[in-house]
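Data availability (excerpt). The following record was deposited with the supplementary files.
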Amino acid sequence: MEAEVYLSTLKVQEMNKQLELANNELESFSYSVSHDLRAPLRAVDGFSKAVLEDYGTQMPEECRRQLEIIRGNAQKMGRLIDDLLAFSRLSRMPLNKQKILTQPLVAAVWNELAAEREGREVAFDLAELPDCHGDPVLLRQVWINLLSNALKYSQRRERTEISVGCLSDGGQHVFFVRDNGAGFDMRFVHKLFGVFQRLHRAEDYAGTGVGLAIVQRIIHRHGGRIWAEATLDKGASFFFTLAEKPSS
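Predicted structure:
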């Protein structure tokens, strides 16, 4: 029996070493992506901007247009790198769980998104939300991503309608964000939370296709689940749960 316990302990130690090695390699890769890829992108964007500023008036319209496309794609790649790094770090970040006052958190996030609704008619309904237990930084990102998506995909409506609330399912809190935007075809809902998976054309709605994957990773790390319901051109609803605080 002692021999079996000893062998089991050795196996666990070996697995921990392999996991630590894998994490170190991933950290090294993330560092390389962050520094080695961003530098040439900054150069492409910076020199393109300089050429436009110094010689733009002397260029044919087509040349200026192509330089703007170069700049736009360099900036998009930079945002994509940032989102991928954020996604990869989520698995390694320790959770700093504590009591969160959900209502003021969501209200603060909505205020921060004021620029995204500027010049639009937006109706926002924030129902009473129960407090929860989790990492405030990560859950703040969940609300930012979900509310930003709701604003983005409803931008073509004359009047945007977004509501946030909480339902009870067997005693468990189910938070939701609902909008009256573009919606999506439920036949493709399985693609919704995948990295780089988009259910709308990039030309119609900007984004990197990583935001919902980040939301799902955060919710899963909190022991919860997330899902969506929608009708094409009639809006979408996103629901998520969080693990309850363990009893002391």
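Summary of structural features: The helical segments are 2-55, 61-89, 102-112, 136-153, 211-221.
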